[in-house]
Amino acid sequence: MSTARASGKRLRIGELAKATGVTVETLRYYEHQGLLTAPARGDNGYRYYSPENLERVHFILRAKAVGFTLKDIEELLSLEVQRESHTCQEVKDMAEAKLAEIEQRMSELARMREALSTLTDACCGGPMSAEHCTILSALAEGEVHAEHHHHSPDMEALAQKRDSHSSGC
């Protein structure tokens, strides 16, 4: 439990930002998006955030750290606030859907990495003009395919193209 929560201390926006490691602008954005409740204003006009807001920002940051979007987090916060009205299965379904998205993205990134690696392996990287650069040629001629329904660039074909240009690669 945080010190502010334990003490029941209300925090000004700068103090909340410092305590959570986010900017004041981020906190205002979260408030504007409905992720944080509007803070009470003191007699001096300052906004004072409750200890619950501190905990909520930590919740948001932890959810973002595992890949949830702010839209997802809005739904998670709704589930968290109304735990008695929802099932654990609902929360698990959200987490599993996010996991599936992450796994799909990782697969896409692996295909991109393979295609880019093939391109860089086929390029000599010499000091000559890029006029005959195999990377630029492959990109211009559509020989690069990182999508799952296409083949990756043919490294041998790119290497032959590189070797056929004596003034560059």
Number of helices: 8
Order of strands, widest sheet = 1-2
The end-to-end distance, rounded to whole angstroms, is 60 Å
User: Structural class given helices, strands, pairing?
Assistant: mainly alpha
Low-confidence regions: 148-152
- Share of residues in strands: under 5%
| Radius of gyration, CA atoms, in whole angstroms | 26 Å
CATH architecture of the largest domain: Orthogonal Bundle
Keywords:
Multidrug-efflux Transporter Regulator, Chain: A, Domain 2; 2% strand; 8 helices; mainly alpha; two-stranded antiparallel sheet; 169 residues; elongated
Q: Could you outline the blueprint of secondary structure elements for this entry?
A:
Blueprint: H1 3-7, H2 13-20, H3 24-32, E1 40-41, E2 47-48, H4 51-65, H5 70-81, H6 88-122, H7 134-140, H8 155-164
Antiparallel strand pairs: 1-2
Organism: Terasakiispira papahanaumokuakeensis
Region (Disordered): 146-169
Pfam families: MerR_1
